[in-house]
Specification:
Rossmann fold, 14 helices, NAD(P)-bd_dom_sf, D-isomer_2_OHA_DH_cat_dom, NAD binding, NAD, Putative Glyoxylate reductase
Length: 326
Amino acid sequence: MAPVVLSFLSSGWVDRLGLEDPDDLEVLHWSRPEPVPPALAAAADAFLVGRTPVGAALLEKAPRLRFVQTVGSGHEQVDLAAALARGVTVAHNPGHNAQAVAEHLILSALYLLRRMGEAHHAVLEGRFQERETLVGPGLRDLSGLQWGIVGLGHIGRALAGLAAPFGVRLLYYQRHRDLAAEARLGLRYLPLTELLAQADVVSVALPSTPETRGLFDDRLFVRMRSGAVFLNVGRGDVVDSAALRRALINGPLYGAALDVFDQEPPDPGHPLLTLPPEVRRRVLYSPHIAGVTAQAYRAMVEAAWANIRRFFQGLPVLNVLSAADL
């Protein structure tokens, strides 16, 4: 009898991309916002999870459950402690959308360095003549700038490869130096505070952990270079939103590109959504879409199914999470 997998992936995405369920697994689907029907949960040997919360209550309804696979790298939607306590193996799926996220970072940096938000509104609001205040010293090429990469995982390495041909000087910080990556990608390691003081562009691709939550606070933002741009595609709670708001209004930052937020979706009164209009034009917002292109999503889903097959075939499973990941 084939193992039963309950997939929580959006049926709309799956259908539009022409993705088919594996023939060697029995696949059930649930992508509605309502609670999962108890009969579906009870039948499942495995869950394939997108952004659907998998908490202790749902796990309790799934006595047959042996394996949970996330489609992306994040796993905060899964109550890992509760799953491990029940003997359920949990795996995440990093790296398959790194190229997509890296391209988003290049887009974001250019948008801010070329002051496109301000330029867009100047034209729409009948202030075309303000081009004189935008051009020349106000606009910057990537060439010759210093780009600080915070977090040299899959995304950070993909970004380094994309950014280097623009002529940027690449800096990076992570907990442990990677000498091989430095040599291969032309990177220079700096402690975090030194990187922030030197970089014109700072991109952050960090997971949410006890060590990273709230890392970017007033203490770090005041160390950043005047006119720098700040890009976050990791997890929103790595940033103190109130501190980022102050850094945008009072300096030293010129602007920011935010694909993630500490609360998703953010409340309408969120401190980063209620910036003064002239400051908001220097912020590029997106609703956590940097890594969900058609190509990336296909690769993520295919890799997730492959890992589920490994589990049920008794083969080594990739990217298994443990208590150390809580």
